[in-house]
Write a structure and sequence with these properties.
By secondary structure, the chain is α/β, with parallel strands linked by helices. The protein contains eleven helices and 17 strands. The protein has two domains: 131 residues, Four Helix Bundle (Hemerythrin (Met), subunit A) (Up-down Bundle), CATH 1.20.120; 201 residues, Translation initiation factor eif-2b, domain 2 (Rossmann fold), CATH 3.40.50.10470. It starts with a strand and ends with a helix.
Amino acid sequence: MVINSAAIRWHGDFLELLDQRVLPTETVWLPIRNSDEAAAAIRDMVVRGAPAIGITAAYGLALEAGRQAEDASMENLADAIDTLAASRPTAVNLFWALKRLQATGDALRGSALVDALTQDAEAIHQEDIAANHALGAFGAALLPDNATVYTHCNTGALATGGHGTALGIIRTAWEQQRLKGVYAGETRPWLQGSRLTSWELANDGIPVTLVADSTAGQLMAQGKIQAVVVGADRITANGDTANKIGTYNLAVLAQYHRIPFIVAAPVSTLDPALADGSHIIIEERHADEVRHVQGKPVAPSQVAVYNPAFDVTPAGLITAIVTERGVIDRPNTDKVLAHLHKP
């Protein structure tokens, strides 16, 4: 089967990833033929966004099984699973996808295992696209008419199988003529908002205004924002949410200004094994990501840097979590766990 989406192309025997490190100035597709290459692409930010990371990991494991051919077994794939799992520690979709494929292939070997893992990886990709469209419809209904929304990082087709999570809500609201426009925060240090989100929205003809991250409070104080819509990399049992660094700041500002704060994510991002956000492992990345912008130094070379990739927004600051199954209003443990069992 061949499946093409905005950032992920599956050709049946190899994977191509759109290199998001060089967008929007260059369009480069990188071939991925085994689990090591898939893990490197995840670790080095060729691909990013929790759903897209999960899809890439699934294909990476399937490709590794194909490379082993008749010797393929879950035992022989153990090292590949460990390598993929270690590529980024915070996004739960990565571990969810690997666990799903392990369950699929548990009793299989050889070509039967290769076929089963490949089919399951393709299913994960297709299911994510469908989930994003369903999620978009549920989330768009939460926005006031003629709303201007603020979003952070990139949660669109580039970060998912297609359509997007938070940007999926924005896209659907625009299609329904219920959206006036979008403010996109630049999202330091990788600038996913300026490089990716503004690029996606502009290409779709959705009015977008790019702002420095520190502008959000001023916009809210001026009454220019009617909702904040963000994605998630992990949501714990009580509704605490890990997302790109800077999300927590936005939630605090939104609560002060009495603006709805909406989190969009597929059900696979919910992690009932963790009671609350204090148990989430927060990835810390290299200091040079902050000392440099697009490869150019902007700080003293030896200055100390704290560079967490994510922060945790407490559930009490979240107006609603939106998944493909519907809306969790004012999330708490009972509501999140009930949502997980919802058909």
